Amino acid sequence: MRNRGTGALLILLGMLLIMDMPRYAAAQQDNVAALVAKHRADAIRMREHIHRNPELGNREFNTAELVASHLTALGIEVRTGVAHTGVVGVLKGGRPGPVVAIRADMDALPVTEETVLPFKSTVRTTYLGKEVGVMHACGHDVHTAVQLGVASILADMKADLPGTVKFIFQPAEEGPPPGEEGGADLMVRENVLQNPAPEAIFGLHALPSLEVGTVGYTIGPAMAAVDHFTIKVRGRQAHGARPEEGIDPIVMASEIVLALQTIRSRTLSPLEPSVVTVGIFRGGERFNIIPREVHLEGTVRTYNPEVRDTVERRMNSILEGITGAYDGNFELIYDRGTPSVINDPDLSREMAGYLAGVPGVERVLELPPTMGGEDFAYFANVIPGFFYRLGTTRPGQPSGGLHTPTMTADSGSVAVGMRVMTHLVLEFLNARAPRSNP
Ligand SMILES: [Zn+2]
Ligand SMILES: [Zn+2]
């Protein structure tokens, strides 16, 4: 009898433990759904405000002010002026648990907006000596608004939050202006991942090729390393009718552009992801003058650090060989930029597993890696990171691609982003927090 009684008690306890988990999750989901409903209009309003008032990298003064005042009003501890205009908020939950960080970028691009949005940007500024339009053509307005919305939700849940959430609002993701430092790299160097040190970091990016309600993710290598090169090809100036008196940099540069493509096609394995693109070919002043110099500029995208080394080495050989053959010379500046984004495999698998269960998420897609880059890599190189994609397009409302004047993100994506990011944060904290007695 005694034994049977103990056995029954153990079974009952076991059932309670098993039932406890989904019950807690269900209650939490209801709570999050109610809080998304409460805060979504405010987040969308902030998104429209940020979209209408875009600011270039390292110049996000008003955006940073909006972010800091929103976080302060929520009772979140705020640090401003991080890596120039960055803002970092720390929300300490009422229950013990780990620290997790989420990151949003705040900068816009020198693109003149051509959408029909009622909150379209008409802002103009001077960039590299030229007057340009300014636009949130990469969706960073959505990223910032989503993260502000998540802050509102989690601040409301503070008493029950099992751990600490660090909100990182980053400047200059697209790269700082020439001659300046900035972005995730500088944030890391300014100790944004310390005091308190997060155990993991999450980030999202708008993706116009996905519909609102769709979320995409990649496990492991997700986005490429981004390098930037500048080449001066130098010859000797001459009359266009007397080529024998000159050394023609246009002919040399033409051969160089074609030969650079053989790095991809002949030196590297066809199975190794890489891109070599010459984006600028500039030289000459007049039709009948052989110029002295041609300027080439472009980008190299790779995943593997050894491939990166090989590309740089082969570029040098090709430049030496071709300019040497014509008695010209060259100068190559090979600038190693953002490393590749590698989503931590264990963390990504765990987080991807939660995505399908988030209310409002209709489709979850595993996406192949892309050759685009993201400076989220600097955070994910220090602590495990998970960077995923948020669908932003509605059927019947076409959007241009990222970085184009017609890129349009539907406001509905803000609410989906809030739900997804809040759930990931809560799942991460709950899975690692010491279990409290019910
Ligand atoms: Zn971008
Ligand atoms: Zn971006």
The name of the CATH topology of the largest domain is Aminopeptidase
* CATH architecture annotation of the largest domain: 3-Layer(aba) Sandwich
The count of strands amounts to 18
Strand content: 25-35%
Q: What CATH first level of the largest domain would be assigned?
A: Alpha Beta
Please tell me about this protein's structure.
This protein has 9 helices and 18 strands. It has 2 domains: 298 residues, Zn peptidases (Aminopeptidase), CATH 3.40.630; 112 residues, 2-Layer Sandwich (Alpha-Beta Plaits). It is elongated and about 85 Å long. α1 crosses α3. β1 and β2 form a beta hairpin. The longest helix has 51 residues. With 438 residues, the protein is of the alpha+beta class. The N terminus is likely disordered. The two termini are 29 Å apart. The strands form 5 sheets. Strands 1-2-6-3-7-18-8-17 form an 8-stranded mixed sheet. It has a 4-stranded antiparallel sheet with strand order 12-14-10-15, covered by helices on one side. One zinc ion binds next to loops.
